[in-house]
UniProtKB/TrEMBL annotation:
Protein name: Acyl-CoA dehydrogenase
Annotated Acyl-CoA dehydrogenase/oxidase N-terminal domain residues: 20-100
Entry keyword annotation includes Flavoprotein: yes
Protein family: Belongs to the acyl-CoA dehydrogenase family.
Cofactor(s) this protein requires: FAD
Domain (Acyl-CoA dehydrogenase/oxidase C-terminal): residue spans on this chain: 250-365
C-alpha cells in the first residue's frame, strides 16, 4: 500500500474500496495522455467504471449501491485522480450528485428509485447543467436565462448551458430553468434522447481537457411535468454540500501523482556533474520536503472535515465555512505541489514526454471550481466577526 494512503485507510471495507479505485486508476492512467491530446472524454474509461460498479457506489444499499460515506468517497476519488484527473472529476460530479439526492432526499422517492435503478442496473450516468454564458456559476446567485414555459401537462425548455462535464457521455441532465409563470427556478430531468437536446463541442481549454465539459443546447425540448424534480429553496435542503469535497480530492490526487513522478525522477536522474542522483542534493530534498508538508496539511484537513461530516450529521448544516476552507486549502496546496515537482524536474518538466506539464495545466483548473477563494475568505471573515 502507498504510504501516502496508509494512515487514511481505517478498516477492511475501506481497503477493499480503495483497491477498486487503485486498479481503475492504473487503467485510466494509460489513456490520460491521449484524452488530453484529443480534448475528449474517454468512453473506455467510463466503460471500466461502469463494469466495476464504480458508478453505483454512492447509491443506497437497497438500490444496488454501496452507500459509501463522504470520507470513503474522497478516498476513492483522490486515488482515481492519480491516474487521470479529468476522468476522476467527471465521474465525481455524477457520484456526488447521487450522494446529494440520497442524503438530502431532494426528489420524490419514486423518481429517485427509478433513476437509482437506471444507474445500478443499466449503468446510466448523470450531471447537473446549471452554468450559463451570461450568469456564470450558479454559486454566484445568477438567475438562469434558460426558460421553462408551461404547455398543458408539459414544459417547453429553451436555452444553453456551459461547462456540462462529461456531456457526450451523459444519459441524464438535471437542467435549471426559470419558470416565469411562478417566478421560480426549477430543475428538470432531461434525457439525452429527448428531441431538441444537442451537445455543442465547445470544450477546448488548457487544463482538464478530458472532461468534455461541452455546452448543452435545448431547443423546444418538451418535458413532462413529472420530470420537474426540484424547485429552488425547496424544503429540506441543507446549506452545506459535503459532496462537493470531491473537487479538492481530485486535485489532491493530481498533486500526489506529480509528487510521485518528481520523487522517482529525483531518485533516478544523475547528471554527469554529480556522483549521486539529484535526490541527494540538499535543495532538491528541500523541495521534496515542502511537497510533503503541503500534502500533509491539506489532506489531514480534508479527511478530518469529511470524517466530522459523516459522524456528526446534526452539525452538517453549519459546516459550510469548513467545507469551503477545505476546497481553498487543498486546491492551492495542490497547485504548489505540482509547481515544486516541476522545479525538481527542471526543464524536462516542460516536455510532453513527461506528465508534469499536464498535471500543471490540470491542477490550475481547481482554482476556478466552486466555491471560489474570495467567497470562502468572505464567509470565514463574516463568521469570525459575527461570533466575536
Amino acid at each position: 500500500m502507498n504510504d501516502l494512503y496508509q494512515s487514511f485507510i481505517k478498516n477492511e471495507r475501506q481497503q477493499q474500496l480503495f483497491s477498486l479505485a487503485e486498479n481503475l486508476s492504473k487503467k485510466i492512467k494509460e489513456r490520460a495522455k491521449e484524452a488530453d491530446r484529443n480534448a475528449a472524454f474517454s468512453f473506455e474509461n467510463l466503460q471500466d467504471l461502469k463494469e466495476s460498479g464504480y458508478v453505483s457506489l454512492t447509491l443506497p444499499n437497497e438500490y444496488g449501491g454501496e452507500g459509501i460515506s463522504l470520507y470513503e468517497f474522497l478516498l476513492l476519488q483522490e486515488k482515481l485522480a492519480e491516474g487521470d484527473g479529468s476522468t476522476a472529476l467527471a465521474i465525481g460530479w455524477h457520484l456526488g450528485i447521487v450522494m446529494e439526492l440520497r442524503d438530502e432526499r431532494l426528489w420524490d422517492e419514486s423518481v429517485f428509485k427509478n433513476i437509482a435503478g437506471e444507474i445500478s442496473k443499466n449503468k446510466k450516468v448523470l450531471n447537473r447543467a446549471s452554468t450559463e454564458p451570461a450568469t456564470g456559476s450558479p454559486t454566484r446567485g445568477g438567475v438562469p436565462e434558460t426558460s421553462a414555459v408551461k404547455d398543458g401537462r408539459s414544459y417547453i425548455l429553451n436555452g444553453r448551458k456551459t461547462f456540462t462535464t462529461m456531456a457526450p457521455a451523459l444519459d441524464y441532465f438535471i437542467v435549471t430553468a426559470f419558470m416565469e409563470e411562478t417566478d421560480s427556478v426549477g430543475s428538470f430531468l432531461i434525457k439525452k434522447e429527448d428531441p431538441g437536446v444537442h451537445i455543442d463541442p465547445t470544450w477546448n481549454t488548457i487544463g482538464m481537457r478530458g472532461t468534455s465539459s461541452d455546452d448543452l443546447l435545448l431547443k423546444d425540448v418538451r418535458v413532462p411535468k413529472e420530470r420537474l424534480v426540484e424547485l429552488k429553496n425547496a424544503g429540506g435542503k441543507k446549506s452545506a454540500k459535503g459532496w462537493l469535497l470531491h473537487i479538492p480530492a481530485c486535485y489532491s490526487g493530481i498533486a500526489i501523482a506529480a509528487r510521485n513522478e518528481a520523487v522517482r525522477f529525483a531518485k533516478n536522474y544523475q547528471p554527469n556533474s554529480l556522483d549521486t542522483p539529484i535526490a541527494e542534493v540538499p535543495h532538491i530534498q528541500q523541495k521534496i520536503g515542502e511537497m510533503e508538508i503541503e500534502l500533509l496539511k491539506a489532506r489531514h484537513l480534508m479527511y478530518s472535515i469529511a470524517e466530522r461530516w459523516d459522524q456528526q450529521p446534526h452539525q452538517q448544516e453549519h459546516m459550510g465555512p469548513e467545507l469551503a476552507a477545505v476546497k481553498l486549502v487543498v486546491t492551492n496546496a495542490a497547485y504548489r505541489v505540482v509547481d515544486l515537482s516541476m522545479r525538481i524536474a527542471g526543464g524536462r518538466s516542460l516536455s510532453k514526454e513527461y506528465p508534469f506539464e499536464r498535471y500543471y495545466r490540470d491542477v490550475r483548473a481547481g482554482l476556478h471550481n466552486p466555491p471560489m477563494d474570495d467567497i470562502t475568505i468572505q464567509m470565514l471573515a463574516k463568521r469570525a466577526i459575527e461570533n466575536e
